[in-house]
Amino acid sequence: MNAEAQGGRSAQLKHTGLRPGWTTGACATAATTAAYTALLTGDFPDPVSITLPKGQTPAFALAVEELTTEGASAGVVKDAGDDPDVTHGALVRSTVRKLPPGSGVVFRAGPGVGTVTLPGLPLEVGEPAVNPVPRRLMREHVERVAAEYGAAGDVEITVSVDHGEEIARSTWNRRLGILGGLSILGTTGVVVPYSCSAWIDSIRRGVDVARAAGLTHVAGCTGSTSERTVRAEYDLPDIALLDMGDFAGAVLKYVRRHPVDRLTICGGFAKLSKLAAGHLDLHSARSQVDKAFLADLARLGGADEDLAARITTANTGLEALRLCEAAGVPLGDLVAARAREEALAVLRGAPVAVDVLCIDRAGVVVGRG
Q: In this structure, how many other beta carbons lie within 10 angstroms of the beta carbon of residue 172?
């Protein structure tokens, strides 16, 4: 078997031996597709198939379905695979009703889905906590169903999760100002199963395969968005992309013992601010964004005390970044540079050149180090 077939992010995920699952966003999309189809035809497709951002076409069995004169509702039970996700087994529902022509697609938060009450998230205050990618997926599937049956596609989608408000107590939602329930999440539609030992082993395997193939440049990526950014920046082959996840320390320590000429670390600004602060495990359960640390970095970049105070009280790391961008303070570059310093400290003089890319949620580079 050649190295290309064994390496890269896909092979790394497979090597964990863990079964992937589906995000709440994928489940909501499936439920929405089934409900809208029933609203137009009178019949619920069961199972209902959807197309995810990377082209997978999973089929979901319906757990509930209801058709009334006002709208149609369908529900899907979330399967998180082997990931210890708090929403595993939750019933995600979507209720679809027609709106007047020209209304477009409107999202509502039903029972168990939160509402955004603080700035700094990728949604406006007052919006239901249905993240941008799930919204895009639901809009795309509404358009497809509408085109198939000659409808306009102007609908209201109300997403709800049974017992979602109770489940949300085990998440960071309240701290982020998401009140009333869960967020509907997912950038790929797939839940990547989490296991420390399996994940770290897969990172090591990825480095080994890249080195065996003669590659001199690899990239540790925190997720699919950072992977796309690295691919666009450096045109690296799949085999060079390491799914680092939250395990920055695992990548650095293994590359220290098994060097490559160049290592790029790419991830979200908030996550890499943790590395900049000296954390090697970037998981939210084990490290948090330090706003006081960000304020101190911003001062080094020219921030006055008023801006530093606003950074300290910002709702999210991304909000702190936007405050600095508006003031002309290069916080993204400062975080990337400090993260690079921390990475080099872990490498302890190993012959590895390091660069760091901080990105926003859209994959736009907001800091280089």
A: 12
CA distance 18 to 194: 8
Q: What does each C-alpha distance from 348 to 203, 279, 341 come to in angstroms?
A: 20, 16, 11
Which residues lie below 8 Å from residue 323, measured CB to CB, with a gap of 6+?
Answer: 307, 310, 311, 314
Identify any residues that bridge with 262 across adjacent strands, giving them in sequence order. 217, 353
Q: Burial level of 145, CB count in 10 A (0-12/13-18/19+)?
A: buried
Sorted by sequence, the CB contacts under 8 Å of residue 326 that are 6+ apart come out as none
Cα–Cα distances (Å) from 74 to 61, 95, 236, 366, in that order, read 10, 7, 42, 40
pTM, full prediction: 0.65
Give the integer Cα–Cα distance in Å for 72 and 42: 9
Residue length, the chain? Answer: 369
* Residue 79 DSSP symbol: -
Interval 117-170: pLDDT, tens: 887 778 899 999 999 999 999 999 999 999 999 999 999 999 999 999 999 988
Three-state DSSP string of 210-239: HHHCCCCEEEEECCHHHHHHHHHHHCCCHH
Q: H helices of 185-330, where? A: 196-212, 224-234, 248-257, 269-276, 291-300, 305-312, 317-327
> Comparing C-alpha atoms, which of 281, 278, 252, 282 is closest to residue 270?
282
- Three-state DSSP at 133 gives helix
- Residue 290 CA: distances (Å) to CA of 22, 66, 111, 326: 31, 47, 33, 20
